Amino acid sequence: xxxxxxxxxxxxxxxxxxxxxxxxxxxxxxxxxxxxxxxxxxxxxxxxxxxxxxxxxxxxxxxxxxxxxxxxxxxxxxxxxxxxxxxxxxxxxxxxxxxxxxxxxxxxxxxxxxxxxxxxxxxxxxxxxxxxxxxxxxxxxxxxxxxxxxxxxxxxxxxxxxxxxxxxxxxxxxxxxxxxxxxxxxxxxxxxxxxxxxxxxxxxxxxxxxxxxxxxxxxxxxxxxxxxxxxxxxxxxxxxxxxxxxxxxxxxxxxxxxxxxxxxxxxxxxxxxxxxxxxxxxxxxxxxxxxxxxxxxxxxxxxxxxxxxxxxxxxxxxxxxxx
Length: 323
Hints:
Layout: E1 2-6, H1 10-18, E2 23-28, E3 34-41, E4 46-54, E5 67-73, E6 78-80, H2 94-97, H3 100-119, H4 123-126, H5 134-158, H6 179-185, H7 187-201, H8 203-225, H9 230-244, E7 249-256, E8 259-266, H10 284-294, E9 305-310, E10 313-317
Parallel strand pairs: 1-2
Antiparallel strand pairs: 2-3, 3-4, 4-5, 5-6, 7-8, 7-9, 9-10
Helix pairs in contact: 3-7, 5-8, 6-7
């Protein structure tokens, strides 16, 4: 069994997987533990790479198990899905280190983007006349009840306009199964075939995407019109901290039930859309003071914030006339 010192290089890993030896031992210098890699060729143009950790000098035993830690695409001479090897291979390319889950997320997004570019606003041509699937009807109701506000908030924070919203992608694959092999061997061909099949056979899902966009557009327009909605305060806080240049910490003063407290907060926690901010990451002394004043496990909201300062500079102050 060939042994390499770990962390090794991508080139040495490739040299092994291209060769004839089915096993490779990766030994960390000064560490009694090591890892054994097993190459399993297939007749589909890929080799699976399996790994088992070994403790000390123990040989492979009946209590050990191998798990898939990478895929080698022979024709493309490319390593994929090797996220489990990132600590053992020092210069593993980012593309090779992406997990199967990350590749699935990117695939879903790419398919949805291409479908959206094709269907544009033409629901009559690409969508069904109506939704007959009960699960989709329930999902549309659930979206309007539970998720649409967060999506509308995302658009507001991104500075989008209601009229830009026409279609929301509804294609989603939850797991690869054996389909991952086809995607790795021919990504563009596989994406194009998936898009064509979805447009041809997913008319109810396409209509569902248009209807979700209708719900989102209506919600977003109502948020913009309602200046009393808390989201505008959340955005004001987020923008103030983002534009202040504060990279680490700021001083936050909150007022709740007539009591006021100033404490140190991570600036990053105040950026983006948050209906409330927890206090778990506060310095211990500030966390204790907060709990004593406002109650154990209490949080605070953007509406509770009186001011935010960075050193001697005030970067946010609540409008006068309200807490």
